[in-house]
Design a protein that fits this description.
The chain has helices spanning about 5-35, 90, 155-170, 175-185, 210-235, 245-265, 265-275, 280, and strands at about 50-55, 60-70, 75-85, 105-115, 120-130, 135-145, 190, 195, 200-205. It is about 40% helix and about 25% strand. The protein has one domain: oxygen-dependent coproporphyrinogen oxidase (3-Layer(aba) Sandwich), CATH 3.40.1500.10. It is an alpha+beta fold. Helix 1 packs parallel to helix 5 and helix 3 (about 155-170) packs antiparallel against helix 5 (about 210-235). It is globular. It contains eight helices and nine strands. The protein starts with 5 loop residues before the first helix and ends in an 11-residue tail after the last helix. A seven-stranded antiparallel sheet has the order 1-2-3-4-5-6-9. A two-stranded antiparallel ribbon has the order 7-8.
């Protein structure tokens, strides 16, 4: 089906294996947090992920959707996908290297975690490999504290999260963190609200230094950094009680998530236009939300 060279297919396969392995490791880490959560704040049995394989309706490929409704994590989606397909003429016009041949391969992991506690930040992370006649990586991670008091540059969560992302970038290029942090601040911005979605992180797209192994290692480092830092942030706040006023503030802030993902998020648009799985694409939507 594809006219892409074998080495591109091999790179996609390497990326796919990594993303699926990372998915299992993150699932295990979140289920450990579910086990640790107990008492009056988190009654009931610890949640467990349900894995739902799916197959693409166009092209070849599919993925594994990981879905959790737990006692600590109100809703989480951790999904992997891979594809061998062709872009539509509309999408090919926007993709480097697809103007001559619309064939492409891709592999990705994406996740969103909405905790029960308004004191535990929501988080998003995704990384992906995509290749037409040209290849690149994209992705990043950003943190969204629900309470205004936590959405400052001095808040411990902000400092810890950004330190983790910087540590992922610096071994590869000391200029990448500042570049990708600024890109994240610009990307996760709601123009109609004139505010950022959260406290940022890093965001990169069409990342191709000319060295596949280096770029793949960088994308792996971003995944490892997320896996290390987010459970630390959860454990720092999961035992704190919260008020109904804080819960109400959380539900309103979740509305910003809905607005961004449906109005501006390129990943959501890409998935829907490329024949992705609607259930996994829209699993980023919070389970409960409010607008004032």
């Amino acid at each position: 089906m594809s006219s892409l060279p074998p080495e591109i297919l091999a790179r996609r396969d390497r990326s796919k294996v990594w993303f699926e392995t990372l998915q299992q490791r993150i699932i295990a880490a979140l289920e450990r947090l579910e086990d640790e959560a107990s008492g009056d704040l988190y009654p009931g049995a610890p949640g467990r992920f349900e894995l739902r394989p799916w197959t693409r309706e166009t092209g070849v490929g599919g993925g594994i959707g990981g879905h959790l409704r737990g006692r600590l994590i109100e809703k989480a989606g951790i999904h992997t996908s891979a594809a061998l397909a062709k872009f539509s003429p509309e999408m090919a016009a926007t993709m480097p290297g697809a103007d001559k041949d619309p064939s492409y391969v891709s592999a990705s992991i994406s996740l969103i975690i909405h905790p029960v506690s308004p004191r535990v930040p929501t988080v998003h992370m995704n990384t992906r490999f995509l290749s037409t006649a040209e290849s690149w990586f994209g992705g990043g991670a950003d943190l969204t504290p629900m309470l205004a008091v936590q959405r400052t540059q001095e808040a411990p969560e902000t400092v810890l999260f950004h330190a983790a992302m910087k540590a992922a970038c610096d071994p590869f290029d000391p200029e990448w963190y500042a570049k990708y942090k600024a890109w994240c601040d610009e990307y996760f911005y709601l123009p109609h609200r004139q505010e950022m979605r959260g406290i940022g992180g890093i965001f990169y797209d069409r990342h191709n230094s000319g060295d596949f192994d280096k770029d793949f290692a960088f994308t792996q480092a971003v995944g490892e950094a997320f896996l290390d830092v987010y459970p630390k942030i959860v454990r720092a706040h999961m035992g704190e009680p919260w008020t109904q006023a804080e819960r109400a503030e959380q539900l309103v802030r979740r509305g910003r998530y809905v607005e961004f993902n449906l109005l501006y998020d390129r990943g959501t648009m890409f998935g829907l236009k490329a024949g992705g799985n609607i259930e996994t694409i829209l699993s980023s939507m919070p389970p409960m939300v409010a607008w004032t």
